[in-house]
Amino acid sequence: MTPSQAAGPEAVGPDDLQDRLSRFATIWSRAIFPVTATSLTRPEFEEHLLPLARQLAEALHTRPFDPAAAQRVGGALVGAHCTDPDALSRTLGVVDAYLVLYCGPGRESAEDSRARCARLQHALAAGFALALRERTLAEQEAIARSALAARSVAMEALHATETRFRAVFEDAAIGIGIADLDGNVLEVNDTLTRMFGGLEHHVRGRKVNEWAHPEDRPLTWNMYDELVRGERDHYRVEKPFYRNDGTVLWTNLTVSLLRDADGVPQYQLALMEDTTERRLLNLRLRYEATHDALTGLPNRTLFFERLGKALAAGEGARFGLCYLDLDGFKAINDSLGHSAGDRLLVEVADRLQSCATAPGEMVARLGGDEFVALTTGRETQREASELAARILSALAVPLTLEGREIIVRGSIGIVEGPAGGRTSAEVLRSADITMYRAKSAGGNRFEFSDPEADARAITRHGLTTALPAALERGEFFIEYQPLVRLGDGRVHGAEALVRWSHPQHGVLGPDHFIPLAEHTGLIVPLGRWVLQEAVRQARSWHEQAGAGDSAPPLRINVNLSPAQLHHPGLVADTVDVLERSGLPPGALCLELTESALIGADEDLLKPLRQLAEMGVGIALDDFGTGYSNLANLRRLPVSVLKLDRSFTQGMQQHPADPVDRKIVEGIVSLAHSLELAVTVEGVETGAQAEQLRELGCDTAQGWYYARPGPPDCLHRLSLADAV
Questions:
Q1: Cα 491 from chain centroid?
Q2: Phi, psi of 240 (to 5 degrees)
Q3: Which of 280, 300, 324 is the last residue of a domain?
Q4: Measuring CA to CA, which residue among 275, 285, 359, 343 is closest to residue 118?
């Protein structure tokens, strides 16, 4: 089948969709027609199924998703006389195998379509069972009325009534039994005898109360006592019985009181519908809906049910939740394949189950390589720690996959505390955050949740999700910090520093959001916006200096992230911004951190070489904080070294730290020998500035000169220098 053949309804035309529905209806009719009691021919029956197929296809893509249509389809099958249990199982098989194939996935992913299809199967089975139950109950009522009428007519015409009653009694498709008010079984039909194992003497002559079952509800026998006392005329319950071979028979039981002509209670009439297969089907569907298909562990649905009960356990109850994520599982999948990864998950599931065997403990798989273990009791802090330690110890035992010995590692986040006060979603979120904290600390360990760390992580997440809209709403702005020539003290340029005016958190510096922007990829559009604004401002400063001013424009320094360096449009974007503003390339300097450039290959350096050849300055920011040395600078297109403030803090007082002074003196000497200018960051005192000038540093920036501020502050500072 081609991809176009498997496309959803939104990817094909009406004629093609109609053809797919017809093929689905054909497969469906062929599957269930042999077990359907209908007078229609198979083509006619197929036409009858076509609108039902359309309802299923539409339900598969309805937004919001609503499986009610599938429940109506199940009822329609019963209405079309598809009452054989095999018709339901064959229908579920056809829907499972062909509905998504012919009618999905549409706008949804294949995984979502399969999940929806599974829920449609459940709803269809429920609708089928409900309709069959109602149909059977209607038949039961009709039979009961016939039986009662037969007993009444028997007083007038015994022979005629007996004949009619026997016809109903013996030929009925449901089990019928008659007992006296003492509970002695007097008569049973063949259907009821077969339901109990086929031996009539094991049924007739027994007492009704001998069929008690441990799962009987107390209300069942209370209603029975009321009926034999004449206080009620009938009751209906779902009741289990033991068959002769010890197996359990589940029934829908209706018991009616038969009275004589004077209204005196005389007999009890029981009508039984065998619901054992339907119950087993419901149990199977329930199991599949609450357990992971790969590992057999409880899935997210069942886990949330158990966690919800644990959190609602009442005063004095506590819980402990261990959230496990395997370390390096993606590498195993990538190197050995998904089949090996699945076998690994099955082995991990088995080991986890062996760790959580105490009362109140359970293990579940949330999805992928994420598992959770829940413990409840009075000392859950100790129990959760011990459970996490057992899990890590069990994972540490090597296993063999594809002929390789592998040791599985995992990171566990633990949330423990009293029940109540938190929702299941909040507990799981805290455990997830804590697990990633354990993973960041090196993995193969467990950590307990920390409310403060959770709050910081939630804040980071909130900032991450708000970043795209913040850029569109114009919440970012730029402050400028002057770059001053140490030789004459005049303003040489400025560094553009982006800020975020957050609606709730106020003004945020780049340390709060630049790492988040790099992680999400938003750093590229944000960086382009900063470049545009900074270059536009530099051009504005040049125009304010006067058209006749022959002095070169102030240089604007713009920070460049590693993600921007890898972006293929870096050179084209920079050229476009410069050409649109009219700013000379020499007035722009791009700053990159030392760690982003040292060790870079030629492909990564190529765009920087192109910009440097145009005249754009390239500065190596935070120099000295990495593992570089000046010899490596020969191959870099760098024109400026920005010396990290850690080297010059010892010069803020007089006399200066002699070691710091020697280091700076050596760096400046070597940098100048390579024809590189040296800029110093973090200058805060006049003594520091004077010593740096004596050592030959070219430019400096810091609070000694000015803090970052709006553009007009820099312009006023430049005018003051000119005066």
A1: 53
A2: -90, 150
A3: 280
A4: 285
Domain contains 153: no
pLDDT tens track for 81-106: 888 888 888 888 888 888 888 887 66
Same-domain status, 623 and 495: yes
Smallest CA-to-CA distance from 273 within 224, 234, 244, 238 is with 238
Q: Say if residue 129 is exposed, middle or buried (CB neighbours under 10 Å; 0-12, 13-18, 19+).
A: buried
| Nearest-angstrom CA–CA distance, 60 and 117 | 7
Site of tokens 């986040």 = 413
Q: 3-class DSSP state for residue 296? A: coil
Secondary structure class of 192 (helix, strand, coil): helix
Q: How far apart are CA 626 and CA 628, in angstroms?
A: 6
Q: Which residues in 181-293 belong to E strands, given as ranges?
A: 185-188, 234-242, 248-259, 265-274
187 contacts: CB under 8 Å, gap ≥ 6: 169, 177, 178, 204
**Does residue 362 belong to any structural domain of this protein?**
yes
CB 254 within 8 A of CB 137: yes
Residue 371's SS3 state is strand
Over residues 40-87, the pLDDT tens digits come to 888 888 888 888 888 888 888 888 888 888 888 888 888 888 888 888
Q: What is the mean pLDDT of residues 572-593?
A: 92
Distance, in Å, from the CA atom of 575 to the CA atom of 611, rounded to the nearest integer, reads 8
Q: Are residues 235 and 306 in the same domain?
A: no
How far is it, in rounded angstroms, from Cα 645 to Cα 529? Answer: 28
Residue 532: band (very low, low, confident or very high) from pLDDT cuts 50, 70, 90? very high
Residue 719 has pLDDT above 50, yes or no: no
* Shared domain check, 365 and 339: yes
166 found inside a domain? no
- Parallel, antiparallel, or unpaired for β 588-593 and 555-559? parallel
Comparing C-alpha atoms, which of 371, 408, 369 is closest to residue 387?
Answer: 371
- Residues 269 and 302 grouped into a single domain: no
* 114 and 74 within one domain: yes
285-324 b/e (C-beta count within 10 Å ≥ 16 → b):
beeeeebbeebebbbbebbbebbeebbeeeeebbbbbbbb
For the chain, percent helix, then strand, then coil, each to nearest 5?
55, 20, 25
Is 670 a domain residue?
A: yes
Of 221, 254, 280, the position where a domain reaches its end is 280
The dihedral of CA 457, 459, 464, 465: what is its sign? Answer: positive
- State the average pLDDT over residues 226-244: 88
Structural domain of residue 25, as residue ranges?
15-140
Q: What is the dihedral of CA 376, 382, 388, 394, to 10 degrees?
A: -100
Position 161 scores a pLDDT of 54
**Closest to 300 measured CA to CA, from 310, 288, 308, 292:** 292
Burial class (CB in 10 A: 0-12, 13-18, 19+), 556: buried
**What CA–CA distance (Å, rounded) separates 506 from 521?**
23
> What's the number of domains the chain is made of?
4
Token pair, residue 235, equals: 């009751």
Q: Which two tokens stand for residue 494?
A: 């400025």
**CATH number of the domain where residue 370 is located:** 3.30.70.270
Burial of 464 (0-12, 13-18, 19+ CB in 10 A): middle
What is the DSSP code (8-state) at residue 481? E
- Are 414 and 305 part of one and the same domain? yes
User: Which tokens is 280 given?
Assistant: 């087993």
CATH of the domain at 262: 3.30.450.20
| H/E element, 478 | strand 476-485
| β-bridge mates for residue 50, sequence order | none
Mean pLDDT of the residues in the chain: 84
Do 388 and 300 belong together in one domain?
Answer: yes
* Ordered strands of the 445-448 beta sheet: 361-367, 370-377, 318-327, 409-418, 445-448
Same-domain pairing of 264 and 348: no
